[in-house]
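Record filed below.
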Amino acid sequence: QVQLVESGGGLVQAGGSLRLSCEASGRTLALYRRGWFRQAPGKEREFVGEIGWSGGPPSYADSVNGRFTISRDFAKNMVYLQMNKLKADDTGDYYCAASPSGIGAYEYWGQGTRVTVSS
């Protein structure tokens, strides 16, 4: 089993920054992709970005491209989501996910951390 735990959420003013962290434990050697998703109040969960195991560049949703950056620390099994120039629309619960597969649906999910951006 794989366990994912997010941290770093909170309240921030529009234009500010936050960094979310996702720690993986368990069968972490099997992990390939690590992703971030978010769910705004009353809306469906949406893709934010992801990063593979090979060290290639992350991919991002258009809505966050240029403002958010995903990075990972292989030694610590950590993945980070640096969020800059935050907007009120970025408010929501942020989830990290992991999969041993390079494509397709994610298999493992964290419990989420809440980000609130005040305008």
